[in-house]
């Protein structure tokens, strides 16, 4: 049976995201900060906030630090090499939260019915050998970056629904996984649509299903920071979330809801192209960027039903302590909980 997340009513917490869209004279001035990101369309809210001056309007002098996987980003937050970041919940992030080093403060990317989301892919070799749907995953290998990554969580949940036993193969980086999929060294993988559609459309792999069919309303990525920033730098953290949320709103209007008009859509693709597929000509990158336009959470709201499900899975696998609660992982005072 498919796992479904219950949705909670928005809580409108005092000091939380109900105030995020409000603008005014920035309380901060030239506050330097490093923001961790992946070169994915799903990280566009940060790119938009930077390029359109929303961070600057809040008094934030932002510099990006780019990563190739989620868990190293969590380590960077804990060590102070990055101040804020956007990525998936991982075993590493949860363990750092348990040690008092990190806190989730908002939501970023979500699966939403009716919007193309993360894809389940099969290598061409595996497809030819019968892996034509996720129902045929039993006995197959499944690519992940690291054990305890979001790829591991998604693969395990899909396999559980299908009653399949799979071998998880850690390959550290997305680029390495793509190479392994193309060469048939691994059988299956899940990935965001701007990568998945490009690979399957070009014939490098086969598309065999959608993650949303197994994990509806999945909170794919979150916004997080150090526990010290969450508790001791409230004005700075609220300023970051305000700017980030404005970037998400612009992205959704241009490429998800498409209410901003065709010209705004083209402008948004050009902006994102500075960070995603920047090594490709615009004409080639445009289709992939548009294909990757998943919903970014309004006001950085966080789907706590999904967060609880993810935390429960990590506990069940023995990857984090049973004593860890959502309160350990999440500071719920900044944005609406849904």
From TrEMBL:
Pfam families: NMT1 (PF09084). Residues 41-250 form the SsuA/THI5-like domain. Belongs to the bacterial solute-binding protein SsuA/TauA family. Keywords: Signal. This is Sulfonate ABC transporter, periplasmic sulfonate-binding protein. InterPro entries: SsuA/THI5 (IPR015168), TAT_signal (IPR006311). GO terms for cellular component: periplasmic space. GO terms for biological process: alkanesulfonate transmembrane transport. It is found in: Periplasm. Its main location: periplasm. PROSITE patterns: TAT. It comes from Ruegeria pomeroyi (strain ATCC 700808 / DSM 15171 / DSS-3). It comes from the Bacteria.
